[in-house]
Amino acid sequence: MAVDKQIGEWFTHFHRYPEVSWKEVETTKKLAEILTSMEVEHHTFDDVTGVVAEIGEGERIIAVRADIDALWQEVDGEFRANHSCGHDANMAMVLGALAYLKEQELGCRVRFIFQPAEEKGNGANSMIDRGAVDGVSYLFGVHLRPIEEIPFGKVSPAIHHGAAIFLEGNVKGIDAHGARPQQGKNALDPIFALAAFLKTIHFSPYEPYSAKLTKIQAGGDSLNIIPGSATFGIDMRAQSNTILKELKIQVDKGIRSISELFDVEIEVNWSDYTPAAEVSEEAATLAEEAIREAIGEESFAPAIITSGSDDFHFYTIQRPELKAAMIGIGADLGPGLHHPNMTFNHDALDIGAKVLANTLHKASFTN
């Protein structure tokens, strides 16, 4: 079967059978089955999902990563696993690149990392801990891009993702009758104060950042009870790791002050930190050359700066010596990533596979 047709079949399978983070059991089995049929050496893990495969020979190693998990979201009135993240496409493109590379001479070993739990923000670390990037010099990723970033037929050599972190908070006040507010401590008051405080945090306008409440839960069905407890959530993002760190310090400080002002206890839990991209100029240059050679000068698009995040960048945070870049594939994707009804032009899959294969081929001969 022609590689482009095979890529389409792989995508269709993964799209039809999505699995959420850390539960990609059948996805892992399918990947292993595909790799076995391709006679590619690979291994799985006893304690986590995911697969690592390798082709080529020599001491040098370069690598590519595909994320394999889906989101849990409401689709047409039903909550279920759903590949609105585009990870089904990422797997298909990386397998396609592997199929193309198997027919070519390589300058070193090429490792294929099929990583779980990108959506949880900690799947990359699980692969790092299990040696997936040990000895690797260049690391590449690939991802479909929304139409507002680049259209179908255009490919970018690097995606400059922003950093992100989430906060979950719990306010502990005292319930009271609506007629006697002096007897209680309204848990909503400090949350409203926090909402106002978030809008007073300012950094340079040349540095994109945001901090906003995304969840508030308090009270029950009775409207004459002042709630003494409430939970809230905050989504924070910044284009640089430095600004996100400063933003977190400011929010921590503000919550402590608000807790003291309203005389309530506020418990906080920071989670799912995802770092901003640390893009290697050398890796991005190789990808740029590969794009121009594989699909033509007119298909090249500049590097993308996006407020989205991806745990791919933990690889370079944990291993600063890695030369890494994530390639962005234009696919007329809409209405947007993570929209339950996200669609895209499937012809982009073969384009992505060819660009990725050419990038890895060039990198295999580059020290």
UniProtKB/TrEMBL annotation:
Q: Which residues form the Peptidase M20 dimerisation domain?
A: 170-253
Supply the InterPro entries for this chain.
Answer: Amidohydrolase (IPR017439), Bact_exopeptidase_dim_dom (IPR036264), Peptidase_M20 (IPR002933), Peptidase_M20_dimer (IPR011650)
Where do the TM regions start and end? Answer: none
The secretion signal range is none
NCBIfam families for the chain = amidohydrolases
- According to UniProt, the name of this protein is Amidohydrolase
Give the organism, scientific name: Sporosarcina oncorhynchi
